[in-house]
Amino acid sequence: MKKRTGEILAILDEEYGKDLRCYLNHQNAWQLLFATIMSAQCTDARVNMVTEQLYRKYDSLEKFAEADIGELEQDIRSTGFYHNKARNIIACARKLLLDYNGEVPRTVEELTELPGVGRKTANVIRGNIYNDPSVVVDTHVKRISGRLGLTKNTEPEKIEQDLMRELPKDHWISFNIQIIAFGRTICTARNPHCEKCRFTKYCLEYNQVPKS
Q: Which residues are catalytic?
């Protein structure tokens, strides 16, 4: 690990701790899977508001598999892209019951064969359910990894590979959780709060901007 990367990780650990906390509320693997599908282009807070009622109404995979798609669309409408999300959730529930006896699989290969599941969602499951070292590349990780010079790529899969090479395995899961907290409060997409940031010496964007 590069000295520079080690310093960045030390600051993240100090500021945000190493607790492996998932921001999407869930009680089991399939609830986290469906919540993550719904989180695409939507905030975790909004998804948590929706799932609070949703998982009481549909309290089993069987109920999701048998759900009326029009009704489910309305149930998750506020998460956006609800037509595709509802279709994928129903198809995913059916596949889990048919092919996996109701269990959420563990490998990236099996997970990404599920409807609506890409590498990001697969890695959320692997890290949070199975504690398998995995790098989740969401919008915060994509933006901030570039700003900190941890990757030069913009494609999520290439960023994932870069971070797997750059970060020690014991930080793969915690890095995403820490960066989400950092990205929501300080290193925002627009108008980041650089005056509060401890990473300015490492930030490529900050050091390219003329200071007044």
A: 120, 138
